[in-house]
Design goal:
Shape: globular
Largest sheet: 4 strands, antiparallel
Number of domains: 2
Helix content: under 10%
Strand order of the largest sheet: 1-2-3-4
Distance between the termini: 41 Å
Radius of gyration: 19 Å
Number of helices: 3
Order of helices and strands: EEEEHEEHEEEEEEEEHE
Structural class: mainly beta
Length: about 240
Amino acid sequence: MGGQTLDFGTTGALRNSNLLMYDRQTESWWQEVGGQGVIGHYTGQRLEQLYLSIVSWGEFKAAFPDGKALSRPDSGRPYGQNPYAGYDRPGNDPFLYDGAEDPRLPAMERVAAVEMGGDAWAVSFSTLAVEGAVAASVGGADVVVFWTAGTASALDAGSTARGRDVGTAGIFRPQAPDGTALTFSADSDGQISDEQTGSRWNVLGQATSGPLAGTALEPVPGRIGQFWFSWASYRPDTVIYSGE
């Protein structure tokens, strides 16, 4: 930020049930969603958002067999344990949240959400689970969202390994590496392919078979798996994809 490299800790405070961080250089406070400074020297500034998707370990290993994993086996910390069992079960009220709720989707519905060109757009995981691949134009730019089953909720059971399958998503620009526009659909087994070449794609935007095998789509930074109540409190003007 402004040529200064920041490192962060957690304040222990929440805003609309969303984490507030602080940077150790200026002690400014930052909201996790949106990455915006809300108190202190960097109030009103925003961190650059990078692409992030929560996927199963199996999905990650298959896509990145030489990928690195952060592991601290001697830390004594209970990684893999969830102190908030049942947090995200359907019908629950958001924990530690007393703001207004947007009734267009259930509060605890997971969404894939994008901000582009000043606009905000979201699609629910429930819709993605049915359609598999969803295309949209956000702020004048085309995006496509992929979905796949097989990722456990970290907030359902007492351990992540026992969490129910909530699936996951990926957000990308729908273009081949040479710039050709692609359109996507999912078959009854959830396999995603493009209509132009018949290549198959995984949730990380990698072509796994067909003429485009070995290539990858450009990822679009967004929110993947954000609870609707949390996203809606941040961008109440969000347009929701309502399905085909």
